[in-house]
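Protocol step 4 of 5: obtain the predicted structure for the target chain.
Materials: sequence only (see below). No template structures provided, no constraints applied. The aim of this step is simply to have a reference model before the mutagenesis design in step 5. Sequence pasted as it appears in the construct record:
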Amino acid sequence: MRRRTTTRRTSVVAGALALGLSLAACGGGGSGGSSGTTVDYWMWDASQVPGYQRCADAFERANPGTRIRITQYGWDDYWSKITAGFIADTAPDVFVNHVSKFPQFTDLDVLRPLDELGPTRTITDAEFQPGLGQLWKGQDGKRYGAPKDWDTVAVFYDKRKVAAAGITPQQLSTMTWNPTDGGSFQRIVSRLTVDERGRRGDQAGFDKSRVRTYGFASGGGGGDNWGQTQWSPFTGSTGWQPLDQNPWGRTFRFDEPGVQRTIEWYFGLNRKGFMPSYREIGGSEGTSVDKQVQTGQAAMAISGSWMLGTFTSLTDAQGKKLDIGIAPTPVGPNGRRASMFNGIADSITRSSDSPQASAQWVKFLSGDACQQIIGRSGVVFPARPAGTQAAIDYNRTERRIDVSPFTDQVRDRTTFLFPMTSNSADVTALMQPQLDAIYIGSEKVSSLTGLNRQLDDLLALAAK
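Step 4 output (C-alpha cells):
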C-alpha cells in the first residue's frame, strides 16, 4: 500500500482552468462545462502535485471554462476526510482512489460508474498496462476508476555497504530464496549484517543481540498492506495468493502450510539478527525502510517504485548523496520472481455537482498527454505504456539509474494483483494485529489458521 507521504497538509490551488470543448459535444450532455464550473480534485501524494499542476495547466489551455482545484492531504488525513466527506456531503468531485479502499466505497455506493458519463464511457482496459483496467471494475462489471499509475517492488541497496561486504551487483541480480535455508538471498543478508564489533552475520562470533547494521530493513508486519513491501515477494514466488480468486475472492488461503512456512521464515530473519525487531523500528508506523537505509541501520530494503525519487535523493549525516542501487526481487521456489502489481485511479463521487465536467477531467488525466507529463516528472510509472516509457527515460537520463528491476516484473509477467475483497477495512483490522503479533513473537505462525476462519466469515457475511 502506498503511503507516499505523511507530511503535513498542503493545499495547491491550480489557476483557473478552461474547459473550452463543449461537454455536450463529448457525448456527456448536461451543463458541466458552463462558465464558472469548479471541479475539486483531491490527492494524497505531495510529490505528484507539481506534475498534476502541469496537467491542469495543459487542460486549461485546451479547454477554457472550468476551474480544477487541486487539494493535497497526507495519507491518514486524506482517507478520514474523504470518508467524512461522503457522510457530510462535502466530498470532492474527483479523487485519487486506492484499491485497498475501493471495495468498501463500492459497497457504500458512493462512486459514480464512469460508464454512465459521456467523456469516460469510452475508456477501455486495452489503453493501460495489462491488468490495471480490470482492477477498477466492481462486482457489477462497471468501471469506477480510470487508471493513473502502477507500481511493483524491488530491492534498494546501499552500494557502498554492498561493496564493503564483497558482494557484486551480479550476485544481487540473481538472488534466490527458499523457506528452508533462505537461499542466496539469506546468505547475502547475513553477509551484509554487521554487529557492533564489526563481525558479519556469516562469521564466527557474530552477536545478534548487538547489531550495528542489519542486512535487510523491516517494513513492519505487513498486515495493513497484504505484505506488499514485506513478505509478498516471497509468498508470491511460491505460487501462493491470499484469495482463491482475485478480485472478489470467496475464501482466504492463510491456513495453507506453504504460506505459513514462508512467513515464519521471513520473520525468522529478525530472530537470526538479520532484520530489525518490531521494537527497534518503532512498530508498523515507525521508521520507514528508506530512513533505515539512510541512517545505516540497514543495508538494503524492499520497497515500491513510487519510492524511486526518495531513495535516489538520500544523503548521509554529512549531507553527501548516497549511492543507491536497485536489484530485482529474489527468484523463489516456483522458479520465478514475484511482485504485487498495484495501481491507483481517479474516481468520481456520486455527490459531485459537476459530473460531466468531472468526467472530462478524468478522461484527460487518463490520457497520453497527461500521463506523459507525469512520466517526465519521474515520480511514478503512469498506467499507459507511453507514460511508462517517459518515466523509464527520465530515470535513465536524469537520475542515471536503471529501473528495469521494476519494469521487468511487468514485461516478464511475474506480477500478481493487489488483493481486492469486500469488507476490506474489516479485513485489515483483523490482519494487522495478527501479523504484528507473529513478527513480535507473541503469536505462532499457526495462528494464521484462526485468522483465516475469521476472514472467511467476513466474506460470507458480505455475500448475504
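Step 4 remarks: The radius of gyration is 23 Å. Confidence is low (pLDDT under 50) at residues 3-34.
Proceed to step 5.
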